[in-house]
Every structure is written in structure tokens, then in C-alpha cells.
Automatic annotation (TrEMBL), chain B:
InterPro entries: ABC3_permease_C, Membrane_comp_ABC_pdt. Its main location: membrane. This is FtsX-like permease family protein. The lineage of its organism: Bacteria, Pseudomonadati, Pseudomonadota, Gammaproteobacteria, Alteromonadales. PANTHER family: INNER MEMBRANE PROTEIN, MEMBRANE COMPONENT OF PREDICTED ABC SUPERFAMILY METABOLITE UPTAKE TRANSPORTER.
């Protein structure tokens, strides 16, 4: 599997097929027992925990199905968090701008439990983009949302992705969301195969299973 | 950055009430340490202060000759107040009458503590030159003369002494006391080379001065000089004070242990709550150092707030208790440094050492938890947690009590409880391995719940049982100590002593007193004699021993010997049988030990220049604190019959009967009456004060236990909610769930109760044998009461804590976090 800079890629597959495991490996959250993963030219399997953390800080960001906001911090503080960890100056101003960008400038001081699911995920999106990551990993970003909110979140995600020229790796089993990505991969029982684009023949099927290196 | 983030997290969590439990736990630990330390320091000062009035000083050096001036220079350098005096026996004459008296010749400044009580009230100053103050009965003995002759000088008899502050309690001091200025001694020319004189040097100062003085002066003393302080065992108060002090320490120590348990549980909860935050921070690239600094700072802030609140609370506690104390005690202001330092140390040591293990686990949370929620990172060895927690407890215990025995006892109790709990937890998990929730009836459901939460329950039991252990231990010990004291000083302890009763007066005095007393007084004949030989081997003096003589060292003074036909009250035979034959003697155990006596040894006394040889047939323990006449040696009447004797007795009179004493003085002018009522009431007061502080400690302990229990149920709330949600969804009735929850907690409480009794009995055994010297016995009623009460209290508390969950609708349960 090879993902180019600025591409958007969806990984599809049934529950338990290994999508999240793959995401963990690609995002330098986990270490492979064999094989090799290169992220922006760096071989992940050669890094220790600290270097992986530093790499994540500089190049990677995340959006989760369950939002993963810190309950005790308000929207603004949640968005500031990664920027502060990375030592970005003017983190507050940037966070305010990001929240305005996702339409939540009136919700800055609200706590997660005071926000709807859609709003929480918008906060998470703002948080994901504040450090201008090279790669954004999204794990079922619309999985916990109703269809209207799902669409809004998806629009926002792809728009921001385009604007900031970020590479997007998205794990989902929502076909519609996956179809908005430039490329689609299918994960099945630990095997990954790229789904040909719609213009290409559907017959090619999934047998072109290829291991990635 | 981490600092500002830590501050922000702290601020937010504080305002949302999430840190309440851990802060409360720290506050309580600090509060109890600071508060109790100040109170006990105040009590200690007051007790010592009052007791030191009995020796009219804080420290005394008694010496047969003038002491090394170096010691006095040292005292001056350290800023101690001091006063010297001489004591010797001499004859005084008034016309044809003469009497042996004990002369106290004192320097200006005497007494350093307490007052000289005169018949006209408290004395102001000392006798003028050429004047003597005299004990009331001397007047009677000499026929109330205006002047007396002492050696080569004449003195005016100016004022009557009721009591000297350092007269001590010696009913055998049969010669009346006179008080004069030390400058007047020279002109009497009574003191010649070889005269028997006791030089007494009294010192007062603050604790640090006295400690320094003791450290430097004591080594300069020789063996014939004696160092006396309030606690050196001479005063009957010393024993009571020491035990009370140790009890107060122990109670606070156990209180600290419990507060530590609360901190431990709260810290675990605190760390669990942050698992997701740490995983998230790591995902966004936080380095290990950043997270360490972040949570280190966070915990530091939490601890600081807890410590500050605790110090304030401790201060308030001290104030509160002081307000209830009598003014004589409240007037003492102990230095605040030690309680504050102890409080701060307790807060930080307990917060950080008890949090260390949960914190390590927190820091080890893998970032992958954001995707796989069940991940908890490294399972570090529990032994580490155990070592750290026990270490913290032992360190704090030792810092606070400075007593290894107490500290080790507490640690041993904690270890036993821990072992029992792990065994129990293991069996609960192994034996309870059955499938399903068993939702048929509440008991089944409760049992299933217990098994399912076996591991968590083992932790919960720590809290419940340690709180119970503590309560039981404190209650039992308090009861035993109070009883012990009551036994020593029953309501009608003797408050008057009669000495110098002539043989022919014995019966008349007995008849005189009998109608006014509840029981006729025991009259003890007193014969003075010196122990000269043991098993035919002559005894030597201390001085001879030092000069290199071989032999056993005897008692250098004359002893008071008595005879009784049966064993007097407050005496207990340890070995042998009480006097059966004429030449049997019963020996007090302390003396027997000092002289190396055992049953069958023969003792030879010299009485009136005549030898008397007797055989040791019993060894007795004597309760010296009882204020009854007590004797080292008790003979048979036949053995002492040939010798001259006077008698003594003691009895109790109510205040309303005081008039009787005046009649007694009139009818029996030669009998000396010693009023010890003041001393008895002082003893009682001290015991009351200590009891009060004990009750306060109990209240604190109860607070700490409640906190632990709340911390415990709090920890299990989230899983319980999920379970209730599922059971509710599938149609379990509200009644079933309430009954099952109640029963589950009740069972837990019952188990805790049983464990607590086992550990409490063990702890009490250790404490009574190693620390308090009390009788060990089993508390059988506890074995029923503790499990019952444990079950009831924990069930009520559990239902109360879960009432919101139990009242929630299915939808609310499913939605809730």
C-alpha cells in the first residue's frame, strides 16, 4: 500500500477485519512484529516510543469515532491541546480561528457534555487540523452520528483536507463516505486490496490482494 | 506549557468536583495529624506542667554533696532558671520539749513551680532571716512555742505550712518539716563534715533548653547523684501519662493509616479517570517527559490544596478542642512548628507514595488505547505498590510516633489484613467461577455480583475492614485503659493518710473512724529495719562496690517493714504462697528482681541492733499507683512482735466530712495527717483530659472511615451502572435490583466484619503485650457484633450511594456515562 502526499484514502471492511489494527500501525501508535512502514520517509519500525511520539507530534493528527475529547476541558482548551504539546505559539488564537472555521465560535467555553455529538466531532476536527498535520488519520469519524450530521462532518473534513493539502487516511464501513476519497482499499480477514475506481471494471474484484511493504 | 496545561486541568477538574475525593482524603490525613499533634502537644505540656508542680521544677538533681559548679554554669548558659536547697535532719528545742525535724533550707526563688501553701493561704516569698516556717503538727508536738532553737541559733516560728510543692508523697516522712533560708544554715553550725545532707538543685526552662541541659549535664553526674524529672517514675502520675501519651499516638497513627488508605483508593480512582486523557495526549505526540511533568504538577497542585486545607482544618480542630479544655490546659501554647511540619510531610509523603503505583500505570498507558479501549498498559508488580504503600505508612508512622514498636505493630496489622484479603480474593475468584448472572432471586444475583467483582471487592474490603479494625482496636484499648486507670483510682481512693499512730492509739483511732467510713481502715504497723544479709552473705553499699569490694549491693536506706495476716488489696502473688510460717516474708517483685532474690532465699535484717532472719516464700506484684500504703516486705506478726512500731493507715473522706479531720487532730495531736486529696483530684483531672482527647480521636477515625467507604463505592460506580442498565433493559424489576444491591453490600460488609475481628484481635494482642502492658483477652461478643454491624452499615451506605442509579430509568442508565 502506497499513499501519496495529499491523497485521500479510505480503508473499508467488516468489523474485526483488522482495519483499526492497520490504522494503529500506519499512525505509529503500534509497532509491527514484521514488515515495514514508511511515514514521510521515516521507517516506523526502527523508532522507539519516544521518537514515535515526536513523529506523531510533528506530522500526524487524528479523528476518532468516539471523539476522545477531554471531558474536563472546554472546546477551546481541547482544540489548543495538540498545539500546546507541540509548543506552538499563539495556540489560543489559532484554536479560536479553527473553531470559527468549523462554525463553533459561539461554543468556545462549552464543555463536551454541553455539546451535541456533531458539535463534539467538529471540535475534534478543529483539534485535528490545528497543527497542520501532514497526515490525518480518521477512525470512523461519522460512526456515532446521524445521517444529517454525518454529511456535515464529512463535508467539513474533506474541505479542510483539501484546503490544507493534508493526506487523509480514513477507516470506515460507510460506503458513501469512502466513495468521497480518491482511493479505496478493502480489508478482509487481515488482507488488504485496493478497490478499482468506478470508471474501472468492477470485475477486477478483490483478488488483487497485495501485501504492502 | 505542561505547567499551564496542568494548571488548566487542575482548575477545571476542581471546579467540576472531580478532585473532591482525593483532596478530601489528603485534607483529612493532614488535618488529623496536625490537629492531633497540636492537641497532644498541648496536653503533654499541660500534663508535664501539672506534674512538674509535684517536683516544683522541671528537672532536679539530688546529690549527697555540692555538685560540680560546671553543671550550674551550664544551666545558666542555657538560660535555665535554677534554685538550690539543702535538706537534713536535726533536733529542735523549745524549752524542755524537743523534736526531730526535717530541715529544708532554700535559696531565694524557691519554689520554681507551684506554691507553698500556708495556713493563711498561698505564701508570697520565703521566711525572713531568723524565721522558720513549720509544719502544723510541729506546733502541737512542741506546745506552740514562739521561738525554737536549731543548733546554735534561735529562730522565730512564724508561719504554719500546710504543704510544700515538692514535699512529694512519702507517708513515712515521719518527722515534721521546717523551712528556712539557706543563708541561715551557717549560723546553726549543724552541718559538720560527715553530716548527712541532701543537696537539691531544681531547674526550669523550655523543652529545648531542658533537652540540651539533660544531654550535657547527665554525663557529668556521678552514681551517688540522682537525676529526677516528671517522668522518672517517682510520681504516681508518670505511668498514667506515659500510657495516655502512647495511646494518643497510636490512635492518631491508626487514623493516619486509614486516611492513607483513603488516599490510596482515591489516587487509584484519580489515575483511572485520566487513562483516556493520557492515551489521547500520547496519540497527539506528547513525550513521556511532558506527561510526567504534566501529571506530577497536577498531583502537586492537588496535594498542595489538600495540605493547605488540612492545615487550616488542623488549626481549627486544635482551637475547637482547646475551647473545651479547662483554662489551666488551654493556657499552654505549644510551639506550632512540629504539628505543621508533620502535617505537610504527611500530605506529600502519603499523596505521592500512595499514588506512585497508580501513577506509573497511568504513565504506561499505551497510545493505542484510543483505538482499543480495553488496553491498560503494563501490569507492574503489585509488590511494588505494596512496598511503596507500606513504606509510606511506616515512614509516616515513625516520623509521627518516634516509636518503633508502635510503628511495627501497625505495619504488622496492615500486612495481616493484606494477606487475609488476598487469600479471600483468590478464593472468591476461583470458587465463584460460575456462568451467567443468575437473575432468579436477589441473593443469587448478589452472590453472582460478588464473584464477578471479586478483584474489585478485595480492594473494597481493604477499606471496609481497615476502618472496622481501627474502630475495634481503638474502642477496646480505650475501654481497657480507662478501666485500668479507674481500677488504680477508684471513686473513693484514699485521700488522707495517718502516720505515727502509737500502738496504744491503734484501736481508738480505728473505733473513731469506723462509723464514718464505708469499710474499716486497714492499719499497717511499721517497723524500720535494714537488710544486711542475703543467704548469710553480707551486703555491700554502692560506694563499696565502686571502691572494688566484692559482693551483692543492698539497699542503702532503712526500709519500712510491716506485718499482715493476709495479703493486702492491690497486691498480687506472682510466685510462692503468702506467709504461712512465723519466719516467712513476702517480697515485692521489683525489689526481688533488683536484689536477685528468689523463693527460698534467706534474708537477715537488722532491727534495733538485733538480727532477724526470715525466708522468702512469696513474691508479690504491687500496684504502686494506687495511693494505698504499699510495702516492699511483709512479715508475720509473730516475727516482728519483739520490735517497737508505729502504725499508719489511709482512708477516704468526702469533702462534707472534712470536719472530722479537725476532731481527729484535736483527739490525737501526735498523729500526723497527710492530705492527698489535692493530688488525687489532679490525677483524676488528667485522666479526664486524656479521655476527652480519646473521644475526639474516635470522631476523626469515624470520619476517615466514612471517607474510605465513599471512595470505595465511588470506584465501582461506572461498572455497576452498566450492569444495572443491562439488567434493567432485560426486564429485571426495581425491587430485585435494589434487594440484590443491598445484599451484595451486606455480604461484603459481613466479610469485612469477620476479617476485621481477626485482625483487631491480633493487633490488640501485639499492642497489649509489646506496648501497653495490659492483660490480653478475646472479645467474643465482637465476633457476632462486628460482622452484623459491618453488613448493616455497608448495606445502608451502598444503597445510599447507589440510590440514584437504582432510581434511574432504563434509558437514563443506558445513556449515562
Amino acid at each position: 500500500m502506497d499513499v501519496k502526499h495529499g491523497e485521500s484514502v479510505a480503508i473499508l471492511g467488516p468489523s474485526g477485519s483488522g482495519k483499526s489494527t492497520l490504522l494503529g500501525l500506519l499512525a505509529a501508535l503500534d509497532s509491527p512484529t514484521s514488515g515495514s512502514i514508511k511515514l514521510d520517509g521515516v521507517a516506523l519500525e526502527e523508532l522507539n516510543e519516544e521518537s514515535k511520539a515526536s513523529l506523531r507530534k510533528q506530522k500526524v493528527s487524528f479523528i476518532f469515532q468516539s471523539f476522545m475529547l477531554v471531558d474536563t476541558l472546554n472546546a477551546l482548551e481541547n482544540v489548543m491541546l495538540p498545539a500546546e504539546l507541540a509548543g506552538v505559539t499563539k495556540a489560543k488564537e489559532k484554536a479560536e480561528a479553527m473553531l470559527e472555521r468549523v462554525g463553533l465560535s459561539h461554543r468556545l467555553t462549552h464543555f463536551p457534555n454541553q455539546l451535541s455529538g456533531g458539535e463534539q466531532q467538529r471540535v475534534a476536527i478543529a483539534r485535528a487540523f490545528i497543527c497542520e498535520p501532514k497526515v490525518l488519520f480518521a477512525d470512523e469519524p461519522t460512526g456515532n452520528l446521524d445521517s444529517a450530521n454525518s454529511d456535515k462532518i464529512a463535508d467539513m473534513l474533506f474541505e479542510l483536507n483539501r484546503e490544507s493539502d493534508t493526506t487523509l487516511v480514513l477507516v470506515t464501513h460507510d460506503m458513501e463516505l469512502a466513495s468521497r476519497c480518491q482511493r479505496q482499499f478493502i480489508m478482509d480477514s487481515g488482507c488488504l486490496s485496493e478497490k478499482p475506481s468506478e470508471q474501472m471494471s468492477a470485475i477486477k474484484g478483490a483478488e488483487e490482494a497485495s501485501a504492502w511493504s | 506549557m505542561e505547567l499551564s496545561l496542568a494548571w488548566r486541568l487542575f482548575k477545571r477538574e476542581l471546579s467540576q468536583g472531580q478532585l473532591l475525593l482525593i483532596i478530601l482524603a489528603i485534607t483529612l490525613a493532614v488535618l488529623s495529624v496536625t490537629g492531633l499533634a497540636s492537641v497532644s502537644e498541648r496536653l503533654q505540656m499541660a500534663i508535664n506542667g501539672q506534674a512538674s508542680k509535684f517536683i516544683a521544677a522541671d528537672r532536679i538533681i539530688d546529690s549527697p554533696a555540692k555538685i560540680d559548679p560546671q553543671i550550674l554554669t551550664l544551666a545558666d548558659k542555657l538560660g535555665l532558671a535554677r534554685v538550690g536547697s539543702m535538706q537534713f535532719n536535726s533536733m529542735v528545742y523549745a524549752g524542755d520539749a524537743f523534736q526531730l525535724v526535717t530541715v529544708r533550707a532554700v535559696e531565694q526563688g524557691y519554689p520554681l513551680k507551684g506554691d507553698i501553701e500556708l495556713s493563711s493561704g498561698k505564701a508570697n516569698g520565703l521566711p525572713l532571716a531568723d524565721n522558720i516556717w513549720f509544719e502544723t503538727r510541729l506546733g502541737g508536738l512542741l506546745g506552740y512555742p514562739e521561738q525554737i532553737e536549731l543548733g546554735n541559733a534561735n529562730f522565730n516560728l512564724s508561719k504554719e505550712i500546710i504543704r510544700l510543692p515538692d514535699a512529694g508523697f512519702n507517708p513515712f516522712a515521719s518527722s515534721p518539716v521546717v523551712l528556712m533560708r539557706i543563708e541561715d544554715v551557717a549560723k546553726t553550725q549543724v552541718i559538720q563534715p560527715g553530716s548527712r545532707v541532701t543537696y537539691r538543685y531544681q531547674f526550669t526552662g523550655d523543652t529545648s533548653q531542658l533537652t540540651a541541659f539533660e544531654a550535657q549535664a547527665k554525663p557529668l553526674l556521678n552514681t551517688s547523684q540522682r537525676w529526677v524529672d516528671v517522668q522518672s517514675g517517682d510520681s504516681p502520675i508518670a505511668g498514667a501519662v506515659k500510657r495516655a501519651e502512647r495511646f494518643l499516638l497510636l490512635a492518631s497513627l491508626l487514623g493516619i493509616a486509614l486516611a492513607c488508605a483513603a488516599i490510596g483508593i482515591a489516587a487509584q480512582r484519580y489515575c483511572q479517570r485520566h487513562y483516556d486523557v493520557v492515551a489521547m495526549l500520547k496519540t497527539f505526540g506528547a513525550s513521556a517527559k511532558q506527561i510526567r511533568v504534566l501529571f506530577g504538577t497536577h498531583l502537586l497542585l492537588v496535594t498542595t490544596v489538600g495540605v493547605l486545607l488540612g492545615l487550616l482544618g488542623g488549626f481549627a480542630l486544635d482551637r475547637g478542642i482547646t475551647a473545651f479544655l479547662p483554662i489551666e490546659i488551654a493556657a499552654y501554647t505549644p510551639p506550632v512548628g512540629r504539628p505543621i511540619m508533620l502535617g505537610i510531610a504527611t500530605g506529600f509523603i502519603s499523596a505521592f507514595m500512595f499514588s506512585a503505583y497508580p501513577l506509573m500505570r497511568l504513565l504506561a498507558i499505551p497510545p493505542l488505547r484510543v483505538l482499543q479501549r480495553q488496553l491498560e498498559g503494563l501490569q507492574l508488580g503489585m509488590w511494588l505498590h505494596l512496598i511503596l504503600s507500606l513504606g509510606a505508612m511506616a515512614l509516616l508512622g515513625y516520623l509521627y510516633s518516634q516509636s518503633l514498636a508502635l510503628t511495627l505493630t501497625v505495619v504488622a496489622a496492615v500486612l495481616l489484613l493484606g494477606t487475609l484479603l488476598s487469600v479471600l480474593g483468590f478464593f472468591m475468584i476461583r470458587l465463584g467461577h460460575s456462568v451467567g448472572m443468575k437473575t432468579t432471586n436477589p441473593l443469587q444475583l448478589a452472590l453472582a455480583g460478588l464473584r464477578r467483582r471479586a478483584k474489585q471487592n478485595a480492594v473494597q474490603l481493604v477499606g471496609f475492614s481497615s476502618a472496622l479494625v481501627l474502630l475495634l482496636t481503638i474502642l477496646a484499648l480505650r475501654q481497657d485503659l480507662l478501666q485500668e486507670w479507674q481500677k488504680q483510682l477508684p471513686e473513693n481512693s484514699p485521700n488522707y493518710f495517718l502516720v505515727n499512730i502509737a500502738p496504744e492509739e491503734t484501736q481508738t483511732i480505728s473505733d473513731f473512724l469506723a462509723p464514718h467510713l464505708k469499710s474499716s481502715p486497714i492499719i499497717y504497723p511499721v517497723v524500720r529495719g535494714r537488710l544486711t544479709e542475703i543467704n548469710g552473705e553480707e551486703l555491700i553499699s554502692n560506694a563499696q562496690k565502686q571502691e572494688g569490694s566484692e559482693g551483692r549491693v543492698g539497699i542503702s536506706r532503712e526500709l519500712n517493714l510491716t506485718y499482715q495476716s493476709s495479703l493486702p488489696p492491690n497486691n498480687e502473688i506472682l510466685e510462692g504462697e503468702f506467709n504461712q510460717d512465723t519466719f516467712d516474708v513476702s517480697v515485692e517483685s521489683g525489689v526481688a528482681e533488683r536484689l536477685g532474690l528468689s523463693i527460698g532465699d534467706s534474708l537477715t535484717y537488722t532491727i534495733d541492733h538485733q538480727p532477724l532472719t526470715v525466708k522468702v516464700t512469696s513474691i508479690r506484684a504491687v500496684h504502686w499507683e494506687t495511693l494505698q500504703p504499699n510495702f516492699f516486705m511483709i512479715f508475720t506478726e509473730q516475727a516482728l512482735a519483739p520490735f517497737a512500731y508505729t502504725s499508719m493507715s489511709s482512708f477516704h473522706l468526702e469533702d462534707s466530712q472534712r470536719g472530722l479531720i479537725l476532731d481527729l487532730i484535736k483527739q490525737f495531736p501526735t498523729v500526723s495527717i497527710i492530705d492527698v486529696g489535692a493530688m488525687v483530684s489532679q490525677l483524676r483531672q488528667i485522666i479526664d483530659q486524656v479521655s476527652l482527647s480519646l473521644s475526639l480521636v474516635l470522631v476523626l477515625v469515624l470520619l476517615a472511615s466514612a471517607l474510605v467507604m465513599i471512595a470505595q463505592t465511588e470506584a465501582g460506580m461506572a461498572t455497576r451502572q452498566r450492569e444495572l442498565a443491562v439488567l434493567r433493559t432485560f426486564g429485571a424489576s426495581g425491587w430485585l435490583l435494589r434487594a440484590a444491591t443491598g445484599l451484595e453490600f451486606a455480604l461484603l460488609g459481613t466479610i469485612a466484619g469477620i476479617l476485621a475481628v481477626v485482625v483487631a484481635e491480633f493487633t490488640l494482642y501485639l499492642l497489649k503485650t509489646q506496648v501497653f502492658e495490659l492483660n490480653v483477652y478475646m472479645h467474643w461478643p465482637w465476633w457476632g457484633i462486628a460482622p452484623l454491624c459491618g453488613g448493616l452499615i455497608v448495606a445502608l451506605l451502598g444503597i445510599w450511594r447507589c440510590r440514584q442509579l437504582l432510581n434511574k430509568s432504563c434509558g437514563e442508565l443506558l445513556k449515562g456515562h
